[in-house]
Amino acid sequence: MKKVQKKLRRSLAAGLAFVMTVSSLSVVSKTQDAKAADVSDQIRISNAAELEKIGKDAAYPMNGDYILTEDIDLSGENWTPIGGSGGDTYAQVTGERVFNGTFNGDGHVISGLTITADGAGNGYAKSQSGLFAMLGSDNASDYAEVKNIVFTEVSIEHNLGGGDTIGTLAADADGFVKIDNVAVLDGSIKVTADNGGDLIGVGGIIGQSRNNTAGVQMSNLYNAASIEVASAVSTPPVRCGGIIGRIYQGGEIGSLSSCLNTGNVTYKGSSGYGINGYSQSVNVSSNTANIMNCFYLAGTGIGYTQDSEISESELKSEALAEKLGSDYWYVAKSGQVLPKIADGKVAVPIPSPTFADGDKADSVTKDFTLPTTYSGENGEETITWSSSDPEIITISDGTAQVKGVLADTEVTLTATTSTGKKKTVKVTVKSDLELEFDKEYAKPGQKMKASVKNAPADTEFTYVWQNSRTTLSESDSYTPSASDLNTFLTVRASLKTTGATVAEKKIYCSKLPVIYIDTEDGYGITSKEVYKSATMRIQGNDNFNSTNSTLYDGGISIRGRGNSTWNMSYSKLPYKIKLDTKTDLFGFGTSKHWALLANYMDESLLRNKTSYDLSGTMGMVYLKSANVEVILNGVYAGNYQLVGNVRIDKSRVNIHNWEDTASDVAKAIAKKENIKGDAKDALEDYLTEHLDWITSGSVTYNGQTYRIGDYYTGLPKNTDGSVDVSGGFLFELDAYYDEKSKFTTNAKQPIMFKNPEYAETNTTMFNTAKEYIQAVEDSFNASDFYATYQGEKKHYTDLVDMDSLVRYLMLNEFYWNTETMKKSTYMYKDLGGKLFIGPVWDMDWTSNSQISAGETGNYRAWMVVTRSAEAQANSWYKSLIGDPYFVTKLYECYKENRQNFEDIVKTGGILDQQKEYLLESGNANYESGYVRAHVTFESEVERLRTFLQNRLEWLDGQFTSVDTLLASLGKYKASSAISVSADTTKENTTTLTVQTGSSSVKKVGFYVNGVLAAATDVTNGTAVYEAPDSLLIKEDGKMNTVQVRGMDASGNLLSNGSISSYVDFTKKVAADALSGTVTISGDAKVGAVLRAEVKDSNNTGTLSYQWMADGTAIEGAAGETYTVTEAEIGKTITVAVTSSIETGTLVSAATAAVIKEELKNDHLIINQVYGGCANDSTPVSHSFIELYNPTDAAISLSGYSIGYLSNGKSNAPQEVKLELSGNVPAHTSYLIRCEAQDDSTPDLIKFTVSQYDKEWTQTIDNKRYQITLYNGSKAADAVSVNEGNVEGAALPDGTISKQKAIRRKDFADTNNNAADFEVVSYKDDAAAVDKKYPRSLADGSWGMKDVVTPVKRYTVTFDADGQTEDVSVKEGEKVSAREAVQKDGYTFLGWYLGDQKYDFDTPVTADITLCAKWEKKETPKPTPNPNPIPTPTPNTTPTPNPTPKPAPEVPAAPALASVKSIANKKTVQVEIQVIPAAGAEGYQVYRRKGNREVLVGEGTGTVFYDENPVSGKAVYFAKAVKGSSISVAGSEKSITLPKTTAKVTAKAKGKKTVTLKWKKVSGATGYLIYRSTKKDSGYQRIAVLKKGTKTVYTDKKGLKKGKKYFYRIITVKRKTYSPAKKAKAVKVK
Questions:
Q1: pLDDT averaged over the chain?
Q2: Which of 583, 762, 967, 1462 lies at a 20 to 30 A Cα distance from 1054?
Q3: Which helix (H) or strand (E) covers residue 860, if one does?
């Protein structure tokens, strides 16, 4: 018998015997348990050697599922934690050192765990001690799980290193981790600090929970080991605890429950925490809600949560066992409360309910699952559940069906096993009602009112407003004060009659916009590679709100971002967001792609914001941004900066986008080859990731070769016809060097392609970009700044935009950005264009910030000179500061922007304004610990201001002159052997004279503004060059730089160009008179857009415009275009054009006098246009163009045509035309049906274009187009969206989408499309489908307001045994047959007119009655119903108008009590309850959808189930049956079921794993997953997903290799469920 077993027997055996005799729970031995559980897939661990293999042997992976089968004795060896003793970091959720599998100790004992570790001497940056180094997972559907382990004789001695964590079970537990039923019976943990060191956390069970602690769940933990932290440790005591050493990152652990510590916890001679330590920057109160029923023995430590200390007597009480939970705890006969893990036996409690995603016991909103069996002491036992209130929670076949309640209601559920054991569970069903506010955001001084939405009439409520725990108001309204800023305001509504809570709503009060993000699983973001589905809602403020800008409320995908800022040990992390829909957030530009910068390393929160804004002020492409508050899963996450991330986009870096081109090409191929759905998406991915087709002209995919030119003609071309791949590049210079396509220049500059990401797959494109960048670098590093590119000598100004090059350095010098030309340095190049530097990005390591102070603290030094880390050693700017021309431009840039710099730091300036605006938010961010250095917001703003003020003062001294600047930079030094002077007194030329005393100088190179203008011979030590003024800068006040270099007789530079001097001078150059002509295009009509066009001009500067009416300048009309207003009626318009360089003014000829076009209905017009661009998820089946004839006479279409042009993805940059024919009657539409949309989402179609007059396969774009109706060659009508201006200004970008059409208002045509057209949403606007749909010739005349054309109609009566239905039909139209009428024992023959069966192809020309006719079957149809309804006896001989035999009594028509959608473990149904009717013996229940009626059930009961319901709105009604009599239909009830899921895929991935994906259903609030091994039966529900944004599910539940499974995915919308449609099959690997 092992020593440990003897000790266990002594300490716990007596208590175990007690449990086995009196506990209502069962105790199963390890052998029984092994038989009961299916452990065939678990890896068995039976000894220490096997335990040591985990993570080291391929057969024992870190993600394996393990079970202990024997006790293990580890004494006598120094244990190395599973995952290793240390590494570069701690708190990881993924990686080779992280255990993310499952480990079931099965009640076995691990004894003698011995670790002696020296973190200071083992060479690791961070060290861990414990059985495991790190437990973690980044997947909410796949937890790392450890349970049922007993430790004894623990001995851990750990000397601290650079940041260490220590715990018996594990050093760290992070992400999605479950730890349950773990006991440390005795032993000791000692922490020393012989060489200083940093203690991160030490605990009896785990050392720390730091990263995404909201996913960590720990329960039923016991520690009796002592924990001692030596006096030499300088870490605060909050980092040591009896159970957990430290809870960090917001302090919000998912749950810590039912814990008991009796081991002494000491810190430097004083008490540590009895249960858990926490981050000192987090309020204690933030964690108390998640730490429940945790206790420590008095004297063993200090408290963290209230009432957690217990006495010796309490330690021995039944009350304590009850608080901890009698499922796992009991009072042993020894008297002490202990866990039920002993001597290799594990207590198995009655399992608890499984709640729907997002629900928990105290907050139930949806049906949930009840366990019906479990393995008890007598083997398998059944469980029966009962409800204390069946009206609210009904138990049905293992499902708790939750009914709606008016107020929060508590219900007790009782479980009773087949052997009589019981367990109770209390749940609170939440009210169906919701609260709403009358204000968009909470603002001090602004009264807010709350009200209950959709409350029953005459229901009265009381309200309570609270801030934290303080009651603020007991009325329905409250006016926030300044003290409420950066706190949650909570309002709770209760029933006035009972006081029961109805609803509660929180709003975060801030001066800033607030972004609420809720992830699908309710947990944080732990990956920067994998997106997580979420929802995002933006709450506005005074600056950004729904009236002045665009906010957002919808689905998103979110993941981590950043390099050094993405560190899972940080309490605040940056995120990348992808919106479901492109949105112009805050007016920052329309895009799906955004970033939330944490600014964790910038405690002032302002370095990125102010520098980005400054770059815009300086004239650079820049990224607009705003500070916001972020609430993540209901918890304040800090102050963030919302900004568009760096990408190719119209509102960001607006250059050619090859990835968009790949998408366009894929869609063009898919359209022609009829490739749809997932296959189309896969083709698009392939083309994006394999770009060789761009230059090869073809692509081979899935065995098929496609010639690009056969499908798409929009590729940019060179003059020789080849594809232009000279640009469309977004580069990043970054030491991380972690992108797919990248190269290193000759000077070791790491250049990466941000877009196109897969540039390396096209050798021509990749080499073109690489050669260009190399030429740029070569020119920077050349002695004369020239390089050879494509056979020609190029100065760097020929290759790079000079303004961006200079401004980028100036801004980064002002901020002292230590990472300039090392990391996050962006640049871009368009087709045929130069390279631009920027935009500015990642500015937190600047300006003496806390993290960068060691590098950026010296404001008296040049960044470009002093920084030489990595790529900076050969920075391009290190060469450029040796060029007098560049330095002169830098000097001018400083002078031009000196006031901009001053505006930032001056009193009352930008920093002061931002500090005042952000004060409360910055303080809250600091108080919550969301800063790297624990320093206050205000002090850090002052720190930034002080640095920038000092920096500006120092820069002023360096920029006193160009000479001073050159000397300060220290790179350029003029040679004493040569000098140059400039004589600017002459007209047309400037005399440049060089004097040299060097006999080796035979020629002199004259470089005017960087460009080699001439190489002149030296005569008697002098060289003279008459520089023409055409080489000089013509802008007033701008300096010209002439650098001269000594050359030999052959014109080669001497001494590598070092024999050099320069001169700067200004000269007012007589500019040429501006020449050319200016003309005005456009009509002189109110609302029309006039455009000024300058031709044949000698302009070299920037043109300016001034529009005039009758010769008088129109105020504010200074652009290239002007939209005519009513103020100009009767006046002629001219435009005057001037140049910033050339002199004089060009004036256009006058237009005709302006007129106002009156409403005209005298010609054919374009009435409505819809473009879906062949997308899926569209609400209309086809794109279309609807014409309308508003006149009183028919119009012949002879000579008419439609022109279509689009520079969007429909690829029609050149206008294409469709000839028309036929006639359009008066007041009638003519419909052109265009290309069909992707048909993979038919359930989303709300309008099908089935009738049309002309078919055209043309794709109509969903973003931009110009459509013109021609009469001959003249445009009769036209409309433009985001293309050219026709009939007024083009409708703006964003007007249309694949959901929206444009439609003319009341047929108005005033040649002002902005006023004449409205937007129609076929997705959201019911009137679109019902009233605004496109008509065709078949619809006849319509739309006349004053003229009513009578339409003759007839009534067709359908008579079925006296039950009639009247249908109104237009004269000449046909009537549709009604559904077959069912009668038991009879066959329906059809509908008869008199004695003849009616032909439904006959036009209706009179009122008629059609009668149903039956024929008796030879064998009566049996009924499966156990309580059949007596069947009426019909006539045996068919008659034209059968009349039922009169019944002695006709029962009353029955009403319906309820119609509701239900979902159980096996299927979804609609339940119909009938109210008993007088005289009824049974009932028939029908469903009607549209004109189709279906019998769904009949019988003598009053509850019926429709097992095949339909999506959308359906009506149910019942008829009562008595004998042969059937009543008329009773009152009806309707129900609307959500749409079924579409685009479902099921893929077997890995070992016994299936991943399901589907298309998100609009409005869905969740999904149910059903599985079967048969296609049409045997389904069982396996998962309940709580949010409609989650469209992925991974099934790992009991799948068997090689077996085929079928899946059904049910859409949930509130408490309704979609029908169970076709199944998706997959075979498990």
A1: 87
A2: 967
A3: none
Neighbours of 155 (CB within 10 A): 17
Q: For residue 884, give the 3-state DSSP assignment.
A: helix
pLDDT tens readout for residues 456-472: 888 999 999 998 778 99
**Residues present in the chain in total:** 1629
List the one residue out of 901, 809, 782 whose CA is nearest residue 864: 809
- Give how far Cα 238 sits from Cα of 161, 206, 241, 251, Å: 18, 14, 8, 12
Task: Determine how many CB atoms are found less than 10 A away from the CB of residue 1042.
Answer: 27
In angstroms, how far is CA 755 from the centroid of its own chain?
20
The string over 1559-1577, giving b where at least 16 C-beta atoms fall within 10 Å of a residue's C-beta and e elsewhere, is bbbbebbbbbbbbbeeeee
Reading the block at residue 749, the tokens are 């500059």
List 551's β-bridge partners, or say none: none
SS3 at position 1463: strand
**pLDDT tens figures, 904-946:** 999 999 999 999 999 999 999 998 888 888 889 999 999 999 9
- Sequence-separated (6 or more) residues with CB below 8 Å from residue 411: 387, 388, 389, 392, 393, 426, 427, 428, 429
At 471, phi and psi to the nearest 5? -80, 125
CA nearest neighbour of 508 among 915, 212, 914, 924: 924
Distance of CA 93 to the CA centre of its chain: 22
Instruction: Please name which of 1300, 1317, 1294, 978 lies closest in space to residue 1167, comparing C-alpha atoms.
Output: 1317
Q: CB burial class (10 A; 0-12, 13-18, 19+) of residue 451?
A: middle
**Residues β-bridged to residue 629:** 514, 639
- Token pair 């503004």 is found at 1009
Separation between Cα atoms, residue 171 and residue 169, nearest integer Å: 7
Percentage of the chain lying above the pLDDT 70 cut = 92
What residues contact 308, with CB distance under 8 A and at least 6 apart? 274, 275, 294, 295, 296
CA 73-77-82 angle, 5° bins: 80
Q: For residue 177, what are the CA distances in angstroms to 88, 173, 524, 632?
A: 22, 7, 13, 20
Asked if residues 1357 and 1366 have their Cβ atoms less than 8 Å apart, the reply is yes
Residues 6 or more apart whose CB falls under 8 angstroms from that of 760 comprise: 740, 741, 742, 753, 766
- Residues 6 or more apart from 117 whose CB is under 8 A from it? 85, 127, 129, 156, 157, 158, 159
What are the tens digits of pLDDT across the range 1475-1489?
888 888 899 999 988
Which residues are within 8 A (CB) of 1198 and not within 5 positions of it... i.e. 6 or more apart? 1221
The DSSP secondary structure of 147-174, one letter per residue, reads EEEEEESEEEEEE--SSEEEESSEEEEE
Q: Is the peptide bond before 1422 cis (omega within 30 degrees of 0)?
A: no
Asked which of 597-611, 822-836, 1353-1367 is least confident by mean pLDDT, the reply is 1353-1367
Distance of CA 1194 to the CA centre of its chain: 53
CB distance 302 to 274 below 8 Å: yes
For residues 902 and 383, what is the distance between their CA atoms, to the nearest angstrom? 76
Q: How far apart are CA 1416 and CA 664, in angstroms?
A: 63
Q: d(Cα 277, Cα 239) in Å, to the nearest integer?
A: 5
What is the identity of the amino acid at 720?
A: D
Beta bridge partners of residue 1492, listed in sequence order: 1489
Q: Are strands 1060-1065 and 1223-1224 parallel, antiparallel or unpaired?
A: unpaired
Nearest to 63 by CA among 90, 34, 43: 43
pLDDT 10s digits, 999-1023: 999 999 999 999 999 999 999 999 9
Please say whether the dihedral angle defined by the alpha carbons of residues 1567, 1569, 1570 and 1575, taken in this order, is positive or negative.
positive
| Category of 1072 on φ-ψ map: left (φ > 0), alpha (ψ -120 to 50) or beta | beta
Location of structure tokens 């069982």: 1580
